[in-house]
Amino acid sequence: MNDENRHMLVVSNRLPAAVDQDSDGNWKVFPSSGGLVTAMAPVMRRNGGTWIGWPGCPKDAPAEELLREHSEQERFTLKPVPVSEDEVAKYYRGFSNQTIWPLFHDLLGYCEFDADQWETYCEVNRRFAEVTAEAIQGSSPVWVHDYQLLLVGRYLRELGVQNDIDFFLHIPFPSSDLIRRLPWRREIMYALMDYDHIGFQTRHDYRNFMQSVRMFVEDTRVHSKRNHSFVLHNERTIELGIYPISIDFKEFDSGARSQEVADSAWYFRENLRSDKLVLGLDRLDYTKGIPERFLAFERALEKYPELRGHLALIQVVVPSRVTVPQYQGLKEQLDQLAGRINGRFSTDRWIPIHYMFRHLNRNQLLGYYKASEIALITPLRDGMNLVAKEYCAASIENNGVLILSEFAGAADQLAQGALMVNPYDLERAADAIFAAYIMDDEEKTRRMKALRSEVRRNDVHKWLRQFMEKETRRHRPSQT
Ligand code: F6P
Q1: What CATH code is carried by the domain that includes residue 371?
Q2: N or C: more exposed end of the chain, with fewer CB within 10 A?
Q3: Which atom of ligand 1 is nearest the CA belonging to 13?
Q4: What is the pLDDT of residue 477?
Q5: 146 CB under 6 A from ligand 1?
């Protein structure tokens, strides 16, 4: 069996389409994009699978009916899991984004540990499992995604589901020392033992997970064979693998060659009036290191006065999770910092930081990538960071310079071509900005060619194939 002929169930917190009201107040389906959708949608269209998730709307919106119509166009089924306002507050904003998210990104100080939120997280995970169990046809494998749904495998087993259940963690897995702080560490670690196959972004995440298995799960044995590792627990075998997620290289590369993108890049350059541009582009998130980036840029302007008037930072922050208090606090902090630094260095002709809080369409995104000589991507911690890979794919003239945090999952693949920095080390980050600014063309080309070749070879389609190959291998007759 292979991905050509197997019906699959994908389970993720959000569906690849959201149900929302348009400007006239009518409920509509708005398709979404992103790495997971790009990779999975063609397989789902070919095989007629089912995608289960939260449609992002209130429980009383006509999601079921609208998504049924949308499914007919998509050729795979979108199955909504209703989540009430109160549950969104406790399951999504609460336990997912104020406990697991900061803990798994090594930011213990941001964590809340609230038993009520945990209970709701369990209830909503159970509901996801119930909707999934109803949608299962025959031996279809189930593929659960990410930290909002850690317990779905456990509840599916409780409902008697014997099918293969795979799990992919898109965010980092922290050290066992952090997992120790979680009051529900045993429940979560044991629940993960109910999956058949767990995928991580990096070797570091995989090692951290193994450490926690040894520490918190009794009666386990670990068995490694070439590139595969297996945890044996309760007469079950859980296969573990490392699958760094990626982007559709060809789509970004060809998009960056279009006339529309050339026009939008020209427009940005004309308006920003700086010889060179350095780009920061992130979802609003305290894991992205945006305040530290502003400070590193300020330090670069102090330390290298020749940058003043010649290099500007464009920081695009895409609104995200704005109802979570810590995200609101971050927004205020960024407004203040950008204002202070601009007040300090701006002249009649030049502004050091162009800071925008907004969504971008595809041409604008590619336009910013193309217009910027340098990308400054400095998360404090990140599962992967696809912006880094997108910037390389869009650098079609091989002349962009990537400055990348050593704490992004993407560092494992991009360290050879990027200038690597520790985002907490403002002095070195300032030096890296200056080094990128003065880098000669020959070095830029050499580095960017290496980066583009890496992203081209290891694109999102390869990520999907490699994850699915494990799934396929388990079904070969010789294995049974
Ligand atoms: O894995 C991180 C992630 O959950 C992505 O899947 C998603 O695109 C992003 O964070 C934003 O998530 P949300 O808006 O659903 O909280």
Answers
A1: 3.40.50.2000
A2: C
A3: 15
A4: 42
A5: yes
Annotated catalytic residue within 166, 196, 205, 382 = 382
**Of 304, 305, 310, which is closest to residue 349 (Cα–Cα)?**
310
Ligand 1 centroid vs 392 CA: distance in angstroms?
22
Can you tell me which atom of ligand 1 is nearest the CA of 97? 16
Quick one: 451 and 379 in the same domain?
yes
Half-sphere exposure of 236 (CA within 13 A, CB side): 18
Its domain, for residue 61, covers 3-245+462-475
Q: Is 170 one of the annotated active-site residues of the chain?
A: yes
| Burial class of 69 by CB neighbour count within 10 A (0 to 12, 13 to 18, 19+) | exposed
pLDDT in tens, 221-270: 998 876 678 999 999 999 999 999 999 999 999 999 999 999 999 999 99
Domain shared by 413 and 442, yes or no: yes
Q: Is residue 326 located within the same domain as residue 378?
A: yes
> What value does the mean pLDDT take over residues 426-437?
98
Domain count, the chain: 2
- Ligand 1 mean position to 306 CA, how many Å? 39
pLDDT at 4 over 50: no
Asked if residue 320 has its Cβ within 6 Å of ligand 1, the reply is yes
Ligand 1 centroid vs 229 CA: distance in angstroms?
28
Report the percent of the chain where pLDDT is more than 90: 87
Model confidence band, residue 72 (pLDDT cutoffs 50, 70, 90): confident
| Active-site annotation holds for 105 | no
pLDDT confidence bin for 128, thresholds 50/70/90? very high
- Give percent above pLDDT 70 in the chain: 96
Say if ligand 1 is within 6 A of residue 321 CB.
Answer: yes
Cα 480 to ligand 1 centre (Å): 37
Same domain, 295 and 198: no
Claim to verify: residue 282 and residue 199 sit in the same structural domain:
no
CA-nearest residue, atom 8 of ligand 1? 34
**Nearest residue CA, atom 5 of ligand 1?**
170
